[in-house]
Amino acid sequence: MEKVKLTAKDYKTKIPIVWCPGCGDFGVLSAIHQAVADLQIPPEKLGVVSGIGCSSRIAGYINAYGFNAIHGRPLPIATGAKVANPELTMLVAGGDGDGYSIGTNHFVHTIRRNPDLTYIVMDNRIYGLTKGQVSPTTPTGDVTKTTPSGNPERPLNPLALALELGATYIAQGFSGNVKHLKELIKGGIQHKGFALINVLSPCVTFRGKQEYDYVRDHGVYLDDVGHDPSDWNAAHEVTQWMLTKNQVPLGVIYKVEGRKTLADEVAEVQEKARAKKIYKDVRELIEQFR
Amino acid sequence: MQQEVVLAIAGSGGDGVITAGDFITKSAARKGLFAFMLKSYGPQIRGGESSARIRVSAKPIYSQGDFVDVLAVFSWKDFKRFTDEIELRENAVVLYDESDKTPLEAVPIPPEKNARFIAVPFKKLASEELKVPLAKNMVLLGVLGELLNLPLDALKDAVMQKFGKKRPEAAAINIQAIDLGAEWVKQNLPEGIPYRLAAEGGNPKLVMTGNDALAFGAIHAGLNFYSGYPITPASPILEFLARELPRFGGAVIQTEDELSAVAMALGASWAGARAMTASSGPGLSLKQETIGLAAMAEIPLVVVNVQRAGPSTGIPSKTEQADLFQAIGGTHGDAPRVVLAPADVEDNFQVAVEAFYLAEKYQLPVIILSDQFLGERSETVDEEVLFARERTIARKLPDKEELGEDYARYKLTEDGVSPMAIPGMKGGQHYISGLEHNEKGWPSSSGTIHQVMSEKRARKLPLIAEESGFVRVYGDEDAPFAVLAWGSTKGAVREAVEAAREKGMKVKAIVPQLLHPLPTKALDAALKGVERAVVVELSFGAQFYRYLRAFYDNLPKETYSYARAGGNPIQVQEVLKAIEAHYRKEVEA
């Protein structure tokens, strides 16, 4: 029997979608459906772990093993799952609040460990599920429900942070350009190691339709300007564009292959431990207590 | 000849006090004697005071021994720190280094103990005869060995085992030092020192700490993923597993925090592994949210809490049993979980096995409440006993017919347990979350569904409560008086019950190993005929007593509480006093 080719439709589920009309997350969902279909990843070999927030509901909308966990913890949950079950293609999803605020510690250390995960952050620059509070990526000066006089704080720059921490695949996409985003996600999945894809995914309810216009007006496709993603210094400059030039870089900002992944490290530790001593049976552990 | 002796050695960081204690314990075990060693440290990271308290006996022992028969100190200054913990028996023998010229009237030992002081040149023998001042702890070993009739040959074997292969020179010096110490006793001390041990035991035994036993038990139970964050006094579990688990193809990750540690373990278990994380009280506080997720998403998870004195940072190096409430009632919402309590070192091994059995069978979080006293002490263990309780079960997986589009991860079943598809299983794709959900896992905010699913998850608990073997009873079967205890207080309680029986009282000890859900039927059986009871625990707030009062209907009407703050482990004498106080009332009545 000839193998039936999977299409994006095969990755949809019947769980009702809770997002508002016009939500950027629909574009991200389509891009994921298309990316995993393009790569023909069997749904049973696909894991999707998410946190809490509007965007984290995405784990229910993909025909996969979906785990909509708790706020801020999708990265360690996915790391444990990937180590335990290395054959899974593991996507991790969440919002800016989940990844860059309550889960920042995990973001930092996951990059350090470099597990083979593709982390898609739907960055809407606001807390949407809780209805409109300032988020770690809200621009300075913006009025939100918790910053009625304008956000006094500087936003976090996740791209620069990831680069400094040694991430080996850093991209930024836009939910308004599904075709482009799909390619970034495919690149992330195919990359061996941790991949960060920050997606500007507008919240029309709490930041208005102009959020789409902002990205459209200020977005610069890196492919168009001849950016070399293997050049760390160039990548660093790109991560500063929003501050220095009021431009939104879109595309692969940095990418290097060949860095050891967590799976490599786990295997190495096992090999070294066995080189010192091998047990045929668990009961042999008892010898050290004699 | 004595059946047993309790020794204490006090010194400062470089004195090798703990090493000396380890050698005594190990040599006793090799001779088939029973031994129990408790370490204690000052707050300094390095170089602070430390003490080893070792009880060696020809018959089974269950506690550290209330009173010290023989004390050895290198300097009185170091000993001062432990006066709270080391109480001498009357007429105890005190060996001290002759170089410490503190007048004996000024040393921190109460005159009414009528101690017999003996100045010994530990330091001098090591530095002048051997030219190795550091070997003074080995001189001490030789002195103690000769004086107390400890097995000198086994002591030397233990030294050879530790240093023989890697550092033969060190081994040779240590053995010389032991001989020097023994010879000094022969030359300088009269016979008739009262604590000579009748050093004939049975088969050789193992020596283990509770933490190592727990980690070993977990590997034995099929552990293949461990994530943890360093914390006193649970770190040795992480260290043991970091060394040993990779040899069995498992993975160990030291995480960035406690939240990550429990989340990784949960993720690994979701993906099919047998996963565990361990911490102490502060860590359990941090892990609670994820424990709730494991309860809601119905994922097996084993979480160990090696309790220490709290609240907050408390006393990190000291024991307590005051995390019972947070184990039973921590995390928000009605979250079914199991709480198991090992009561001695071999229990730590067996409870780890039981924890995986229950977690896998019922798909829920299992919390193991060990404590510092259990985790860090060393005990002799019988190999046969260790492996006596083997229970294992595979996770309930869906049949082929159950898979496909209609697969319901949370199918309503009689026992509340639904077949769990493991990621990778074709046709088993589904969505789970911390959200309330219907049978298929779809999120729902319906109060009706919330009720139905709460009932489903709770249906597991009565079945767990009836699992066998979780209540231990010691003493007179038909006793009208019982001592109820859990966890590490068991040892002192068991010995106190024996002491009370020797005094003519009819008493038994009842020690549940499963604290939640309460094994009520087994407790009912154990309490049959009991008219009065006392609940003994190391919790200032009497958590166990209050827990039983609130959740156990058949507690004898006259049940009293003996509870105090942790720090120092409970002693036999105080339990005996508690028994006598309440038992007498009954006699009078």
Structure, described:
The complex is a heterodimer of chains A (290) and B (589). By secondary structure, chain A is α/β, with parallel strands linked by helices. Chain A has one domain (8-258): Thiamin diphosphate (ThDP)-binding fold, Pyr/PP domains (Rossmann fold, 3-Layer(aba) Sandwich). Chain A has helices spanning 25-38, 74-84, 96-102, 104-113, 158-164, 178-190, 204-207, 210-218, 232-239, 241-244, 262-276; strands at residues 46-50, 65-68, 89-95, 117-123, 169-174, 195-200, 219-221, 248-255. Chain A has an 8-stranded mixed sheet with strand order 2-1-3-4-6-5-8-7, with helices on both faces. The model of chain A has no long low-confidence stretch (mean pLDDT 97). With 589 residues, chain B is an alpha/beta fold. Helices cover 38% and strands 20% of the residues of chain B. Chain B has 20 helices and 21 strands. In chain B, the strands form 3 sheets. Chain B has an 8-stranded mixed sheet. A 7-stranded mixed sheet of chain B has the order 9-8-10-11-13-12-19, with helices on both faces. In chain B, strand 2 and strand 3 (49-57) form a beta hairpin.
Give a short summary of the structure.
The complex is a heterodimer of chains A (290) and B (589). Chain A is of the alpha/beta class and 290 residues long. In chain A, 35% of the residues lie in helices and 16% in strands.
Key words describing this protein structure:
heterodimer; A: 290 residues; alpha/beta; Rossmann fold; 8-stranded mixed β-sheet; 11 helices; B: 589 residues; Pyruvate-ferredoxin Oxidoreductase, domain 3; 4 domains; 7-stranded mixed β-sheet; 20 helices
> Major sheet of chain A, described briefly?
8 strands, mixed
The CATH H-level superfamily of chain A is Thiamin diphosphate (ThDP)-binding fold, Pyr/PP domains
Radius of gyration of chain A: 20 Å
| Average pLDDT over all residues of chain A | 97
Q: Structural class of the helices, strands and pairings of chain B?
A: alpha/beta
- Stretches of chain A where pLDDT is under 50 for at least 5 consecutive residues are none
The CATH architecture of the largest domain in chain B would be 3-Layer(aba) Sandwich
How much helical structure, as a percent, in the residues of chain B?
25-40%
Ranges of chain B where pLDDT stays below 50 over 5 or more residues in a row are none
Strand arrangement, largest sheet of chain A? 2-1-3-4-6-5-8-7
CATH topology description of chain A: Rossmann fold
Number of domains of chain B: 4
